Prior knowledge:
The complex is a heterodimer.
Chain A: E1 10-13, H1 17-28, E2 34-37, E3 53-54, H2 61-75, H3 77-81, E4 92-96, H4 99-114, E5 120-122, H5 124-130, E6 141-145, E7 149-150, H6 153-166, E8 170-172, E9 177-183, E10 186-192, E11 195-198, E12 202-204, H7 210-216, E13 224-235, E14 244-247, E15 253-257, E16 263-267, H8 282-295, E17 303-314, E18 321-325, E19 331-335, H9 341-358
Parallel strand pairs in A: 1-2, 1-12, 2-8, 4-14, 12-19
Antiparallel strand pairs in A: 3-7, 4-6, 5-6, 9-10, 10-11, 13-16, 13-17, 14-15, 15-16, 18-19
Chain B: E1 8-10, E2 15-16, H1 17-25, H2 31-38, H3 50-62, H4 66-69, E3 81-82, H5 83-87
Antiparallel strand pairs in B: 1-2
Amino acid sequence: MMWMKSEAKTVIIGGGIIGLSIAYNLAKLGEEDIVVLEKNYLGSGSTFRCGSGIRQQFGDEANISMMKRSVEIWSRMEEELGMDVDFRQTGYLFLLYEESEVQDFKKNVELQNKLGVPSRIITPEEAKEIVPLLNIDGVIAAAWNHTDGKANPFKAVFAYANAARKLGVDIYEYTEAQDIKVENGKIKEVLTNRGSIKTHRVINAANGWAKIINKMVGVNIPIEPYKHQGIKTEPIKQGQIEPMVVSFKHGGVYMTQEAEQGGIIGGYGLKYGPTFDMTPTYEYLRGASYRFSQIVPALKHVNIIRVWGGYYAETPDGNAAIGRIKELDEYYLAAGFSGHGFMLAPVVSEMVAEYIVYGKTEKPLWFYDPYRFERGEFRGKAVQMG
Amino acid sequence: MSDKSKIIICRCNDVTQKDIEDLIDQGITDIEEIKRLTRIGMGPCQGRTCIPLVAAIIARKTGKSYEEIGIPATRVPIRPVPAGVLVGDVDEE
Lengths: 386, 93
């Protein structure tokens, strides 16, 4: 086993894209002595299980502006982190079947346009031009934004981890935070299966497992792990389903073709939980196969090679809980991403690092305030599928 | 000596022995991480051919035992099945 530090200025719990990107951004702003703890291997929790989509088509100002910034970072990530993460702006296409859906998406598009996101409502025929294999029976319109896209979660995790290491961050895998010692409201030590690390600052980036870490310090914020799943087909000819195609009419189904490999990856909204079980289910495999072939009938003849489980760490309003916890010093939470952690990571980590280092940020941290739930102040439910 | 850049370990995703040994030389010796970075075991064969070969390369280069290396999770369906067959719309040949 690798040697481990016995003392650190900052301990980040969770080696997924959120924890690693926060470590990177803190180090970039000059912070030293940062440790990341991952109980399994990097990305093993939720990042490597995600659907890979990156979109700005949200329905509220905070998420739209955050994602606009995030896409800026995604699009120059190779330059910044020194590794190509297969980011492709292949767009997001929402298929709309009801007049009420069209009205909702028109409102969202108006807000997105006001904030500089070039989304628009298009006709079913235009949608079919973008994805010729689409079944447009019953489709009355579609919402389309060509600057949305996707990236490779595996490469993105390694890109952030390597860039963080270059700036001096220590990353310990197979190292589980088992308890946090607090005295007089101050953090003293993080106990792990490999020994303890003295520290005064902990960042909980454990997402699906965040409530377990919160419990160690007596903090109670509603974040629960729900099992969602994904399926993947064998590779097919490139260029068949370039954008992320979404239909709420078909149970929140989403699908896209992987940029590098050419398999179709996606899922739908069937979820189980709260649970820490991640076993894939036959019910899901069948349900997702059915929905895939409803949207793109040709997929009936394509082999499904894999189904896997992962968490949406969900909060009551489907938006993350990010901020400093008041009950003790110095504890931060960045978790409960409700299925949007991968796409938001570049901008959330920038925001959290600014807040920790400068004590303030111009990004809408207030929107993700972990205490909004106890105040009964729920945000509009974030646009969510899968 | 044979050219390791021409020895295919993963036929689904065209990963060579050299690709894998290069990662191990960079310090990436965890089979789960090698899987994600090279996508060995993630193609239509789902690891039947390549995973034992990769485990052997890791064992030889690092001295780890097969127990330590472990094997990634096997996921359903065990062999590829057309979506239409799962749905009951298409007959299996």
